[in-house]
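Entry for the shared binder. Reason: the reviewer on the internal report wants the predicted structure included alongside the sequence.
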Amino acid sequence: MDSAWNQVTGTVAAEFSDLTDLSDATRIVVRLLVAGVLGGTLGWEREHAGKAAGVRTHMLVAMGAALFVLVSQQIGIESPDMSRVVQGIIAGIGFLGAGTILKGTGDEKVHGLTTAAGIWLTAAIGMAAGLGLEATAVLSALLALAVLGALPLLQRVLTRRTGAPPDRSR
């Protein structure tokens, strides 16, 4: 019985051998947490604006994108070949974003473009975090928040001054 138990525990230990030391585990946790927090922040803004894709969606998109590039790095994919992984994420997220776009009729022609673009950008932020470019990911998220939060306020102020009809694409 002892040899069977040793074989089982040895197999389980071998299955978890992808994390060779504490620094590897820390690196993975930090990158996934950064991706999740930044994605969640963008999702919170979208949810606060009453949009369907909110905190959980954006967190999962960012963390998923980060994990794809992280795992690719772990298995030894070199930088030139990483472009294929990135291209796959971009295309896949494009399909997810396309599902958020609805075409209507009359004055209300298209809905969901900003949400689709936000999901796409959230994936890019997740990829940056997953590749270890956390400062780039944070800066990008801050700029995205400015676009999503500050620009609509500026548009409202300018609309009141010029009398132009408000932008309904949001």
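Summary line for the report: Residues 15 and 68 are 19 Å apart (CA to CA).
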